[in-house]
Amino acid sequence: MPFKAPECPKCPKCGKSVYAAEEMLAAGQKYHKGCFKCGLCHKRLDSTNATEHGTDLFCKQCYGRKFGPRGVGFGQGAGSLSMDVGEHLGNRETLMS
């Protein structure tokens, strides 16, 4: 009987096999450590600042900018809400209809 290697899960970002030594878990999927980055600002993520939207990963700040209420996500407090939606980080989507 020929040797058959066990099936390894594929990283949703790069599509390559993820081995146990390099896996990061989020959104029910396994990612490489190098692929475990925010989809907007490309900051490295860890278990304390990772959030998901569908299959996309974001840091908590970018998630608030992209999907939170308008003006939230910058940690400034309610007295000084910013209307910045992250254009300087590559966000080109608008929430207005």
TrEMBL record:
<dbReference type="InterPro" id="IPR001781">
    <property type="entry name" value="Znf_LIM"/>
</dbReference>
<keyword id="KW-0440">LIM domain</keyword>
<dbReference type="GO" id="GO:0030018">
    <property type="term" value="C:Z disc"/>
</dbReference>
<keyword id="KW-0677">Repeat</keyword>
<dbReference type="GO" id="GO:0007517">
    <property type="term" value="P:muscle organ development"/>
</dbReference>
<dbReference type="GO" id="GO:0045214">
    <property type="term" value="P:sarcomere organization"/>
</dbReference>
<keyword id="KW-0517">Myogenesis</keyword>
<dbReference type="GO" id="GO:0060537">
    <property type="term" value="P:muscle tissue development"/>
</dbReference>
<dbReference type="GO" id="GO:0008307">
    <property type="term" value="F:structural constituent of muscle"/>
</dbReference>
<dbReference type="GO" id="GO:0005634">
    <property type="term" value="C:nucleus"/>
</dbReference>
<dbReference type="GO" id="GO:0046872">
    <property type="term" value="F:metal ion binding"/>
</dbReference>
<dbReference type="Pfam" id="PF00412">
    <property type="entry name" value="LIM"/>
</dbReference>
<protein>
    <submittedName>
        <fullName>Muscle LIM protein 1-like protein</fullName>
    </submittedName>
</protein>
<dbReference type="GO" id="GO:0042805">
    <property type="term" value="F:actinin binding"/>
</dbReference>
<keyword id="KW-0479">Metal-binding</keyword>
<feature type="domain" description="LIM zinc-binding">
    <location>
        <begin position="9"/>
        <end position="69"/>
    </location>
</feature>
<keyword id="KW-0862">Zinc</keyword>
<keyword id="KW-0539">Nucleus</keyword>
